[in-house]
């Protein structure tokens, strides 16, 4: 078993690194004299006589603002809060957690509580403030710390009670006060009890260890408790029998059904967002208000049977990597977390098939996901699940309804620990404590099984890349490992949740080498809540050492790909984070936050499926057609079915490994790897020729330098990446699959035999068909955009449209992936062509692809270059074909799908100027970028670090 040791990596929230970025460092500039940066210790300021509020509007920087007349706020606190409670109750939801301002007002009231409101106010402080490093948590921890220090008092909270409440805050701002209290004979027993169950300590562990070594008996007890895994053993085991009521959703539930894109703005507000779960009527599901509010009454009715609900479906969780989707399910079917407002964990999810990312996200949240045959289960059935025996019975009759095998026994530990992430962090803490006491590794936890003992005859490319990230030659399928995360991406609809998860993890500095945040999903038509995100999230990312893009810059992947290092591993909170070089394992926001914070990610190494192309690409056939050739061939080979019931999908949860395509640029490689998301693959590797990677990296170095010159931050993260790229280029060696590598299946695709375009028919990205099978269908709207496109696609479309006089018969949407593409297309005159034919030109970004902003008309038929065509994604009731930009352009001109012969005639025109059309943006050959880049110096420190890394 490979473990890089999260315990060690988490320590990488190092003092020096965090110190320069920390929120508290900002606070210290404005007179919080006692504030020290949260690194090794989080010193909470003494707030005697003054409370404060946190304002994030001014200068877009979190700032501490003292309110000399705080009572003015406090006096209206209860009235305003109760108004909010009533408004939320009218919507059928619980109030929001307290904001920093509300918490500050509450603190004032607690110092001198109005008669009769004591319990009410105290309960709010205890239960309605988010834990971790949320700003409100900071206010709460500061107040309690001041009580402990004796500089502030409350008739409701004595020193021991303050320690007790601090002990429920999980980590972050509460930690130092708890550790300091170990030196106080009165408070030490309470602090010790709390610390024994606190996991988010990071390098504060060493402070407790130092006290233990210096003879502090309470610290000794704590270390022993961690070594004995008391934090884990004190929690109840998963019961032998779980009785639940089935909430059955027929067919496929994709994450858009659970967390609809148009409601993305409300995702961080879990109870509010939950109202949109399954809001569109479908067989067996009765929304309270079709298209607006999901089946809340139906859920309440089922709960009256007296059991928690289990989410059950034929296929569950396909599509985007949305933590919000699991949040919504758990909000109705999970359990409360003590002292954590508006979040739940636990619950049971059963699927004939559960999409891998959704499965992992459920694990992270402490739910029990189980794959099994669900054909004997119906809505409202009460069932008994026997997790240790692998049987499900009808509660009333005892009839066996299904049998199953847990994916791994470790799931039982994950549920007990409250989730996979707490389990990993807790195991790390236990192992550190045992090391400190010179004890053998703990035997308390179940170990992952499944890896073959013997070394395989050869490793695949993915197995080698992950091996490299774990410091070994290769990693066999089934092996649990924790590869280093070199690059982590976050986009704007999952970003706010990732931010919340980072706060919960008490993270104030990233350990992953490069973390990048984009604003591609919400920039074009932002809601007020998106505007707040645009203003606040960049600073949150940069102050932790990450790189933040700006609204209007464009799509996450089109930028992140340009920051990649060959043969490295990463992740992203967007299911299309599918690196064209190296490998990415996209994940839900909880795991992405974990990867960014700790620099590693837990991974059960999946098996691989090889797709080998051979032969020569035929005229008119595009890379997008090859993307669709993969499901098309898999269907022919009997490895994939379109039907959901009993669905077969050889790619699901495996790594798609592609080889045999030569002379392909990295941009083209991404078009292919990107679509591995539609295959429900866990990840994707693609063999790209070395000269193309060298060309790409040289271009990207210039782009990154240009970014620094344009004031993007964090500049140090970009400098580190530039230095690493330059170091790799000095000795450009690429990993390769061994000839004897083993795959779960091999699919061969003969390019000589693909002579016409392949599309995906409405509304399923698996339903790949030849153009001749769908030709002639009338088309109303056409979308050319998304991360599947690059500048070449827009030139190709522009060249076809240039020949056309008048206005096209369709509504054509044009959305370039980045502002750089938009700049080139404008300079070259393509924007004027698009404008002349009546196209609607959108801001660079995701545009129609996610369907959360502008939408196609209801029930229209559409040709789209976007990634997926799930029902209602692009527009309500829309029928969406997925196709190449070239075919989409032809359809926009004809108003119908052409015949193959018609298409090939158009394609021949593009082909005649292919070298000009498919010219990619090589920034090192673009004068304005080169000029700006020339001004940027890379620090000696960054160069030295890169040299060291590559010399290992
Ligand atoms: S373009 Fe579409 S698939 Fe790509 S990142 Fe945006 S929403 Fe996701």
Structural summary, described in words:
This protein has 952 residues and is an alpha/beta fold. The relative contact order is 0.08. Helix 11 crosses helix 12 (217-227), helix 19 packs across helix 20 (420-436) and helix 29 (715-730) packs across helix 38. The strands form 8 sheets. The chain has a 7-stranded mixed β-sheet. A 5-stranded parallel β-sheet has the order 15-14-13-16-17. Strand 5 (335-337) and strand 6 (340-345) form a beta hairpin. The chain has 5 domains: 6-233, Serine Threonine Protein Phosphatase 5, Tetratricopeptide repeat, CATH 1.25.40.310; 242-417, Aconitase, domain 4; 461-604, Aconitase, domain 3 (2-Layer Sandwich), CATH 3.30.499; 608-751, Aconitase, Domain 2 (3-Layer(aba) Sandwich); 759-921, Aconitase, domain 3, CATH 3.30.499.10. Bound molecules: iron/sulfur cluster. The site of iron/sulfur cluster has 14 residues, from helix 24.
